[in-house]
Amino acid sequence: MTHWQLLKNVEHVFINVKCNQLGFRREYLKNIWSFILTFIFGFCVCQAQKDYGSLSKEEKKEIRLRSHLLIDLNSVLLDSLPIAQRISNTTPWAIIPSSKKNKNVRFLHEYSKYQNKLIVLGTRNILENIPSELSVVWVNDRDVETLNIEEEQTLSEVDSNGVQELLRVYVKNKDSLGIDKLLNVWLKKGKTPNFIETAGAIGHINSLVDSLNRQPKIYGVVHNELGELHGVSFKGYLQNHVQGNFSLPIDESQTLPALIPYKSGYYFSPDIIYTTPENRNNPKDFMAFPLNPEYALTHDYVFGTQIRNKLAFDSSKLISNNVVAKKDSVFGDVSYFSNGAFIDTGITSKSALKSNFSICAWIKPTQLDPNNSILGKGDNFVFKLHQGFLTFTMAGIKDYVSTSSPIPLNEWSHIALVYSKIESMLYFYVNGKKTDSMRLISNYKNSDFHLMIGSNLWEEFFVGYMKEVKIWERELNDKEVKQQFIGIPKASKDFSALMWWLIVVFLIAAVFFIFLYNFKKNKDSLIPRKKPVNTLNVAIHNGSSDSAILCFGPLRIMDSKGVEIAKKLTPLQKKMFIIVFLHSQNGQKGISTKELTGILWPGKSIAQAKNTRSTTIQNLRLILSSCKGVELIFKDKCWFMDVGANCFSNYAVSEEYLTMYKNEEYDHTDFEKDLPKLLSIISSGRLLANESYPWLDPFIEKFSNRVVELCIQIGEKLEIESQNELIFDLANVICIYDDLNEHALKMKLNVLIYQGKLSLANHVYDNFAKLYEQLYKEKYEVSFEKIIVLKDYQS
Q: CATH fold of 548-648, please?
């Protein structure tokens, strides 16, 4: 008897009894009871039936990691379906409902005798009369990827790009499917085959499902801050991509795998997980972060009146042969290649284009020959135009001609070529859009030759204009290539005339303002001024500086255009900057090469350290070149970070303040006005908060101690009646540098009690005591009453 039938029986008894007891009209009471029944039944049905999308993460995971025998009730005869024999074992089932209602009802009635859970593929509510004891999960078609496996199909023919969480495998010929093929599909897809269906007898499939569910596996999720991340590969696996949630079968008789996630344009944390018997059943969680667009950018050639590599300290080693500088209405200064013109980028380019690489360039061909080389490097790398189509050539192997990537004559085009070593694929782009992809028939190998721009080893010269060529030693993704293509600038017809008029107007304005400034200066110099006494000789950053070095919280370096360039630094470059910068403060003369080498390259030979150091210094200088007033120099046998007056350094300002207040070299009348300036700087975060190195700890500890000691020293001199807010600010700063400082707690509690905020004072004390217990594993024994200073405050 179903719940509905039971409730109907109760209805009959209830209505008859109540009508007799209360004398109500039977129809009136029956309507009330029908409403109650409908509500209760609807609630029970909602609880017993759920959509896959509404399940909890754990419930979804249980379904994702499990294989089911899928029965299409439209294509089977119930009389031939061994329900009692098959359902009574542990093999989970799923169904596709029949279009015949009676057939569905009959199946559900029989199924519910043996199982209380069922997965149904299809639209909800197409089933009627579901037994109340049966819990149903509805899986919509949008959540399932369907794969039809034919007898002759091979693993390489199985696509891996489906983004749906669940996988349905349909086998036309059950005898053509073995466990090995299913495991290969699992590897290729990166997700468990969840629903196995066949048009034939189910006995063989039933055993396969059982084998899949017994198969050891590793599983987890790859995601970024926005959610699951699609299209991620694991190095060394056969499958192409996984789509957020993943699972992979493992062979315990072999070495357990290491998971190394890879997706162009991202790095991962952690970047590798070794599978062990102990952690095999733990879900693996990889967090993805986007790479800086300039990460692994190794060459950035710009053309015009000068031809240079923006990333090289010295571009004099570039050998230009007949390349001419010209004016262009779109890009201004560009280079023109004709009559066999080319650029040899020199010996340093021998190491370029080693494995993964990406190339972006702005070109404007004016003549198309059978072959026009854009870049060439030995016989294994030629990026060219072949009959006007983008082409990549490996001599003696193949010309990879992209007929879907034509380049027009006499027009600027942004072109890109990306090589993915892990996929052995080439990707072509024109004006920010992917136009073609090709699989290499032979692995790409780097050649030990110079990189040539506008030519190659066969002297297939480029004819036309170039503005820029950029090379990365990594694979750019579609979004990154599109960001490099920012659109073709619109030409200005009257560019030259307009520029001349602007120059004339600017010169007239400049002469006028120089005259006005000198006149005012001469006039002011005639007015006698009083010499200021004990005024602060400290510059506070008000936005007028050309650049800034901000050391509290994460390190930030702002160039003269307001661009944050610290993120462009590699970890090694950032370490070098911090070391030299800190050794250049407070009158220090810098750091010697020997000391610097001992910190950054311990254990390396002198020659190895010298090469690495020279490259790091060269690249660091290049990045800092956009910051006016900041220069890394070698002075008096020491490396020194010269920070000029036009660069604001909040660390230098804070050091001046700390020294000034410690020595009491300040004007007391300006004390309350100037102290908050110091507090605003050092309260923005701990010094270099995101950096942690053994050599850095002494600097951090020394500075933190100075801050805490000064704040306590000043706080003891302030009057709570008139300066309580300043005392509270000092206490907050102390807590930034010392979480469990009792002086700071004492200062806070006294201020809050004076302000009449007793409950807030208790709250502050309780938080301190909790933190103390968490860190020291023992209770804080000083009571609230003992720690406060009792005074007769005036209200």
A: Arc Repressor Mutant, subunit A (1.10.10)
